[in-house]
Amino acid sequence: MQKIKGIEIEKNSQGEDAFIRIDFQKFGKQLQPFLEEVGLLEDDFEKEWETALTLDEAKEKSIEKVRSWWEKMS
């Protein structure tokens, strides 16, 4: 098998190819789509953003909260 700088194939105890060690600094951009697809590089911000409130929902919740405070003070 051809050797590529930055990629190593590691063998298990039986001498079979079992693992690949890849220099992420060198090959990270090429690997990123695959790693995102398998869920390894999920961005927490993006996950939270998908379930975030819309502007109108945030306004409504804020108004409800302020009204509840006013009702407690009355």
SSE diagram, text form:
Blueprint: E1 7-11, E2 17-22, H1 24-37, H2 44-50, H3 55-73
Give your account of this protein's structure.
It is a single chain. Helix content is 54%, strand content 15%. It has 3 helices and 2 strands. Strands 1-2 form a two-stranded antiparallel sheet. The mean pLDDT is 88.
SSE pattern, N- to C-terminal? EEHHH
| Rg over C-alpha atoms, rounded to the nearest angstrom | 25 Å
Number of helical regions: 3
Name the poorly predicted regions.
none
Average pLDDT reading: 88
Supply the key terms.
74 residues; two-stranded antiparallel ribbon; 2 domains; 2 strands; alpha+beta; 15% strand; 3 helices
In short:
By secondary structure, the protein is of the alpha+beta class. Helices cover 54% and strands 15% of the residues.
